[in-house]
What we know:
By secondary structure, the protein is α+β, with helices and mostly antiparallel strands.
Amino acid sequence: MNTKVFVTADENGNVIGISKNNPEYGYIRVEQTAPMVSDKGWLKISKRSTLIKGKVEDLQTLNYTAGQQLPGSIVIKESLSPFNTENPDRDLKIAGDTGVVCRIDDQPIYRQTFYTTNPNSYDELITHDNSEEIREVQAAQKAMMKISRNNTDKTKLAEL
Length: 160
């Protein structure tokens, strides 16, 4: 398994992205495939990504190229306090495709990823306690998918 961090490029081959709000600032996107073992002992291989942010002129001095391997790792940090107080919803931890915000004691959990070269950095995870709500939404989504498939199948039969 590859647990190395790699620089990525956009669809045009650009390694440095430019901020829409201020062209002096930009970012470099990096990815890593890493194993995660849950508190209950389940292994999951996950693809992580994050942005290295900074002034465009500083990012350019790095001379990173697409596919370049970097030392370090991408770590996940979860918190009960927003990382961005101006836009706290930006970093909400969402349960898969459900749209449900993960919470503990009815407080939302915030999640961000960071690139680090510090070998002592590690994931800081918070286990949510609204699993029942998440399961209910997943069950409702499955039921809707089944209804949608049945309606599609009936339409196809009617066309024959």
